[in-house]
Amino acid sequence: MTRKLVCQVDQVPKDGMKVFDLDDSKRVLILNSNESFYACQSFCPHQEVCLEEGLFDGEVLTCHQHLWQWKVETGEPIGLAEESLETYRVEVEEGQIYIHS
User: Fold this and answer.
1) Counting C-beta atoms within 10 Å of the first and last residue's C-beta, which end of the chain has fewer, N or C?
2) Cβ neighbour number for residue 47 with a 10 Å cutoff
3) How far apart are CA 77 and CA 71, in angstroms?
4) Whole-angstrom Cα distance, residue 18 to residue 12?
5) How far is CA 34 from CA 2, 14, 58, 68, in A?
6) Cα 59 from chain centroid?
7) Cα–Cα distance, 100 to 57 (Å, whole number)
8) CA separation (Å) from 47 to 52, 61, 64, 65, 95?
9) pLDDT at 23
10) Residues of the chain whose pLDDT is less than 50?
């Protein structure tokens, strides 16, 4: 596994989310839930809709187009979703967010 710097902690809104481009042309969605950070693929596996445009309640991420939902901690599908999200292990160190991929 490779550890990659994604962003600074203060770049992700409190109880919100933001997409970041990585060097290898991969995009990752970072979610902030009460200062706990999670990372997953940035597009819905259903029809490649940008998940940053969806809804996040601190535990569940919902795609705004077809209402697929996932638990952000595990990427596990719930409700209508038929596929899991690819998730990444997050590490926060000295105000910086890293993922392991």
Assistant:
1) N
2) 10
3) 7
4) 6
5) 26, 7, 7, 23
6) 11
7) 24
8) 14, 16, 11, 9, 34
9) 79
10) none
